Amino acid sequence: MKQMILVVEDEPKLAGVLRDYLRQAEFKTFWIANASAVVPWVRKHAPALILLDLMLPGGNGLNICREIRTCSTVPIIMITARIEEIDRLQGLESGADDYICKPFSPREVVARVRAVLRRTDGNPSPDTAAGLVLNQSRYQAILNGHDLGLTAVEFRLLQFFSSKKGQVCTRQQLMDNIYSDERVVADRTIDSHVMHLRTKIALVDANSEFIHSVYGVGYKFELREKMER
Ligand code: CA
How far apart are CA 71 and CA 153, in angstroms? Predict the structure, then answer.
């Protein structure tokens, strides 16, 4: 079955080009140009992924993204006209899975769409050690019965850590695994996601420290002895 990609873009020409390329890549597409129509549509239909323009008449992509995140974990790729916006957007914890800067090549967009879908479709078994359960399809991490309320990026970080128990993960590895290939992200971006993740874990269980810093290298994920099953 073809996957449905929702294209949210107010420039008809650009939307048309994107849709053409996506169709050639065997996706179904739906186009929305107006901000206010997005959330109701997403609630009703279940797109496989959303391409979301940041600047829209009647609203901005950031707010739409946050609103969608209250009801759905659908992968979202945010599109912005300014490269310097990307760092800022990441800092704002919008809940987007990836960012693309205009002007882009439609080919690149299709590659990113595929990369994000690949990343979010995997179905590793839940990790129940130490009371931690990861629900891939809902991007939900439950610790001792409490939802950690992670962003998509934090969820992927935790998922990657928990697949590498006891091993040191370099920042480079973390970047490679939580973002799609072409992305260049600063080390501090990873550090800030890890910090948020630690904070959310500590809020649920102050005694749980899973993620340890390894000076000059990266991080190590370890479950304490007594918590292991
Ligand atoms: Ca626009």
Answer: 17
